[in-house]
Amino acid sequence: MASGGDRAGLLRVLYVTIFLTATGLGTASFMLPVFATSLGANYVDLGLMGALRNVVYTVMTLTVGYLLDRFERIRIYITGMIIGVAVVAIFGIITQITLLIAWSSLLGLVSAAFWVTASTITANISPPERLSQSMGRYNLSWILGFVVGPTAGGYILEAYGYQTLYLCLAAVILVSIVVIQWKIRPAITLHNRSGSKGLSLAPLKKLGLAYLTLIPFTCILGIYMAIMPGYLKLV
Prior knowledge:
- The protein is mainly alpha-helical.
- It has one domain (4-192, 200-234): Up-down Bundle (Growth Hormone, Chain: A).
- The protein is built from eight helices and no strands.
- Helix 1 runs parallel beside helix 5, helix 2 (43-68) packs parallel to helix 4 and helix 3 (73-91) runs antiparallel to helix 4.
């Protein structure tokens, strides 16, 4: 494992990759309903697209967590982003709303792979006594991507159209992959050290009430992200 100073440096690089990837994936998610309405999608289509993406996201968070316990975590991080580059780039050439709804489910897949893995790697690299600070900076990194990405994406979309927008977003994620390969992967290898290999939902039962409190928030957020951008284009 890297020393304290090395960990701090690796975390700074990791935050850069999180910012870049969140910029690409977050902007793609926010612009997708707008793109769908330009293809003729109605509110039912937007709701279905958001629901399908979130179902895949839910399933994949458990799947990715299972994989993180069994395989090297930096490799999973990179693999998820490579898939993300392809998924985001192809959005720009889709011309049928049915195909767009189906393809958008893959955005749920790569988003789950990114957020679950990025948070896990942040916790793994962080010195234990600075974990709260590290997770705060992790959240700051991706939320900055959500601020910068849609703002810049709007200007790109107005000037050059959807195909150029999604190619630019894919390129941003690709830069993140290059940074990881260059700075992080040669410096550290992350495996599960607990020795646990079984899949168990028992630990989740203790958090059942906490998860229930998230339901209203997630319902509102899901409606907002799936419907609101398309609504703003229609009004």
